[in-house]
Amino acid sequence: MNDANMQDRAGLKIAGELVDFVETQVLPGLDLAAEDFWRGAAGIFERFVPGNRDLLQKREAIQSKIDDWHRANPAPVDPEAYRAFLTDLGYLVPEPEAFTVDPKNVDPELAQIAGPQLVVPVLNARFLLNAANARWGSLYDALYGTDAIPGSPQRGGYDPERGAKVIEWGREFLDRAVPLEDQLWRNWDGSEPKLKGDARVVGKRDANWLIRHNGLHIEIVIDPAHPVGKTDKAGVADIIMEAALSTICDFEDSVAAVDAEDKVLGYTNWLGLMKGDLRETFMKGGEEMTRTLNPDRHYVDLEGNAFTLPGRSLLLARNVGHLMTTPAVVLPDGNEAPEGILDAIMTATISCHDLKRTGALSNSREGSIYLVKPKMHGPEECAFTNDLFDAVEDLLGLDRHTIKVGVMDEERRTSANLAACIHAVKDRIMFINTGFLDRTGDEIHTAMRAGAMRRKGAMKETPWIAAYEDRNVQIGLACGLSGRAQIGKGMWAMPDRMADMLAEKIGHPMSGANTAWVPSPTAATLHATHYHLVDVFQRQGERREEGIAPLADLLTIPLADGVNWPAEEVRAELENNAQGILGYVVRWVDQGVGCSKVPDINDIGLMEDRATLRISSQHIANWLEHGVVSPEQVDEVLREMARKVDGQNAGDPDYRPMADDPENSMAFQAARALIFEGTEQPSGYTEPLLHAYRQKVKAGG
User: Fold this and answer.
1) Residue 304 carries which DSSP code?
2) For residues 165 and 152, what is the distance between their CA atoms, to the nearest angstrom?
3) Three-class secondary structure of residue 371 per DSSP
């Protein structure tokens, strides 16, 4: 932190770039004087910082007592004694009386329509624009350029044979999702489609036909002059899918934001989205291109009346959790301010530009602000967030519960007390969402001293995983989220494997989740087909009749139960974890890339963020703790995997190799610290170490 760059505002020391951004870009147009804003922000920090610190101390105190209990009660764990201990500890809280959530003014994309959701790093304007514009996507393009259909197109222009397969797939999808009354879609002549079932033709745009089904739209593009349309009996040139209904613009796990410079870039991009004027110019194929936000889409209904549909994804901002502090704001006591409190103030203030319609485009048509809050441990922390959002609303002169909250159900104390967590935010909740990787990382860390964990892949076969995914939906439905808020599921991490995604990810809508995460606009377009094949709200009605999966299953620790793996299995697990850690950390620490497609040990590209890093580093730390591997083995494998990762990144001119001089590689040392200091990291989080090493690199260390 450069003290000379800090400016005094209402008793706070604030980075100059943040002061300038707020006073020259954010506040104009909001009828909020700078003095009043900073005074209000200082009051929020004064009121909430002590509680934030107390909650973090409580996390550590609870973890320390759990560690002690496991030391005194070695495996196998007695489930009744364990549950009684967690109850006495206050880790498990009483279930609330039956209640129904009551958020007002939630946009239909979150409450009444089921469809895909994107997550995109807020530091990358080009990715943000791609994601926001992924509300509508070409099914033909998504099929033509991916492995969704076997084979690949021939190079050198349009491949008619590949195109024919795409057209066939598209027609067969229409036959399954929105069938015609008296014929197959391949025989359709282009006249007004006569549909059976629940699908309806609701409008036209030029010659195109617009169909609505399960709340989503499909646009049949008619253009006989198009290279594809001219080969088609009905002149169909494309099938446009309404795809990414919502997008999470992420300030958290998918970005490397460690100082005021990084935070202001993220806030600047969020402001561009809320005002509708974000743009990015870049080179592609040797040509300069400028990307902007798409306008809304205009149609006429069958009676000739004009109407409009949203042209962009509904945008949510994911704040950081309660743990980290930021050098962008220094408190009167000389300590850095909690980053999550700053995020709440800044993202909500910026969102007021959307509420006041200061720009040409709108986000929330219902007048709400959508903030996702990750990594909360239990209902006390959810209640803290609710109170914090109350205070931010008061600062901004907003009606109560204008700020909606998404609760990430990714920590063990939250999923074990999910109904109580939802109750704490029941008047502002707009989604709950499972996150397998972070949830597994917290599972390992919480039970770190209980014994050696199973191999990472085998954890998916343990009772707690199924109970976690089932309880999330069942409890959400019992609390009345259906029709009022989203119940979401996690990411498909393999962006190059769309055939597998089409085969497997239909399980998410079948589970009763009305959204699930996808890694790209292309994946959103393909995943949208699932929401035409499954009526999610009907599935929710069916699942409401189920009982809730037992808490006992959720509390089952995925221990290896004394398994003695062959040496080659131990080595394979260690190599897989170490390679993944290094492949992600080297980009985070050296280049500031928080999310990217990282080759795994088999050179398959996986979308990685801090959640994957957390589980892999905690897994090795656990095996070290219980003697499954030795420190020497870990160091040997890290050095070997550093060479592999160096080779995988050989084509990147900005890459800094690790293997030749690991002692002086900040990235290698960060990866090593995440493992060897993993048992002592708060909740097993990776942020403290990543931030420290990234700050060293940015400072020229």
Assistant:
1) S
2) 11
3) strand
Here the CATH number for the domain that contains residue 383 is 3.20.20.360
The answer to whether residues 225 and 251 belong to one domain is no
Q: Where does a domain end: 194, 214, 242?
A: 242
Q: What is the pLDDT of residue 2?
A: 59
Domain range for residue 145?
138-242
Output the six-digit token pair for 430: 């707009």
Q: Does 543 qualify as catalytic in the annotation?
A: no
Q: Give pLDDT tens digits for 341-397.
A: 999 999 999 999 999 999 999 999 999 999 999 999 999 999 999 999 999 999 999
Polymer length in residues for the chain? 701
Query: Same structural domain for residues 237 and 378?
Result: no
Q: What one-letter code names the amino acid at 48? A: F
| Same-domain check for residues 238 and 250 | no
Whose CA is closest to 40, among 399, 346, 394, 401? 394
Model-level pTM? 0.97
Contacts of 82 (CB under 8 A, 6+ apart): 69, 73, 555
**Segments of the chain scoring below 50 in pLDDT:** none
Catalytic residue among 609, 614, 646, 694: 609
Q: Which of 59, 291, 318, 539 is catalytic?
A: 318
Residue 609 annotated among the catalytic residues of the structure: yes
pLDDT at 262: 98
Non-local CB neighbours of 270 within 8 Å, separated by 6+ positions: 122, 249, 317, 347, 350, 351
DSSP one-letter string for 600-649:
-TTS-EEEE-HHHHHHHHHHHHHHHHTTSS-HHHHHHHHHHHHHHHHHHT
Task: Mark whether 609 and 660 lie in a shared domain.
Answer: yes
Phi/psi of residue 297, nearest 5 degrees: -110, 135
Alpha helix positions (H), 356-435: 378-396, 412-415, 418-424
Contact yes or no for 48/389 (Cβ under 8 A): no
| Contact assessment for residue 169 and residue 348, using Cβ atoms and an 8 Å cutoff | no
Let me know if 618 is exposed, middle or buried by CB neighbors in 10 A (0-12, 13-18, 19+). Answer: buried
Distance CA 617, CA 670 (A): 11
CB 167 within 8 A of CB 238: no
**Judging by beta carbons within 10 Å of its beta carbon (0-12, 13-18, 19+), is residue 282 exposed, middle or buried?**
exposed
CA dist 453 and 558 (Å) reads 6
469 three-state secondary structure:
helix
The two structure tokens encoding residue 491:
């990411």
Is position 27 within any domain?
Answer: no
**Which pLDDT score, from 0 to 100, does residue 562 have?**
82
Q: Is residue 21 part of a domain?
A: no
- Among residues 496, 528, 554, the one where a domain terminates is 554
Cis amide prior to 150 (ω within 30 degrees): no
pLDDT of amino acid 4? 72
Q: Which pLDDT belongs to residue 605?
A: 93
pLDDT of residue 671: 98
Identify the pLDDT of residue 335.
98
Q: In this structure, are residues 348 and 256 in contact, taking their beta carbons and an 8 Å threshold? A: no
